């Protein structure tokens, strides 16, 4: 399992192809988002070819910056590639009911990518 504890500016990350687990949750506005997200991208590239189950990739980013969003789009691009190779990958985007910007970000993703995608509003 790949695990990163949540901090004041970075999200909780739990990733495991063996347990069919992909969760990124919390605040994400680190000034050094590159060093935080590059290992996650590398993990996806290395581990997703081994995927033997359906996996739901859950994102619940309560606050995020544009660099984080760029990395999320990069991740979803990789998910799309693996979907085309026969892996079963679905994205679930959680957002708070009063967070219009976060909901709009999710809607933008649905328009950009042809991948199983679900938006879940939390109250």
Question: Can you describe this structure?
Answer:
- The protein contains 3 helices and 6 strands, in the order βββαβαβαβ.
- The chain has 123 residues and is α/β, with parallel strands linked by helices.
- It has one domain.
- A 6-stranded mixed beta sheet has the order 1-2-3-4-5-6, with helices on one face.
- β2 (12-16) and β3 (21-28) form a beta hairpin.
- α1 packs parallel to α2.
Helix content: 25-40%
Average pLDDT, all residues: 97
Oligomeric state of the chains? Answer: single chain
Within the largest sheet, what's the order of strands?
1-2-3-4-5-6
- Contiguous low-pLDDT stretches (5 residues minimum) are none
Structural class: alpha/beta
Beta-strand residue percentage = 25-35%
Query: What's the shape?
Result: globular
- Alpha plus pi helix count: 3
> How do the helices and strands follow one another from N- to C-terminus?
EEEHEHEHE
Q: How many domains make up the 3D coordinates?
A: 1
Name the descriptors.
single chain; about 120 residues; alpha/beta; 3 helices; 6 strands; about 40% helix
């Amino acid at each position: 399992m790949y695990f990163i504890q949540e901090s004041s500016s970075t999200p909780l990350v739990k990733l495991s192809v063996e347990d069919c687990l992909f969760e990124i949750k919390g605040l994400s506005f680190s000034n050094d988002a590159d060093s935080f997200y590059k290992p996650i991208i590398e993990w996806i590239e290395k581990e997703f070819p081994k995927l033997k189950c359906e996996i739901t990739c859950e994102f619940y980013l309560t606050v995020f910056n544009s660099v984080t969003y760029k990395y999320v789009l990069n991740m979803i691009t990789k998910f799309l590639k693996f979907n085309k190779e026969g892996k079963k990958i679905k994205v679930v985007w959680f957002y708070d009911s009063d967070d219009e910007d976060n909901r709009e970000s999710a809607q933008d993703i649905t328009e950009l990518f042809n991948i199983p995608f679900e938006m879940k509003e939390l109250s």
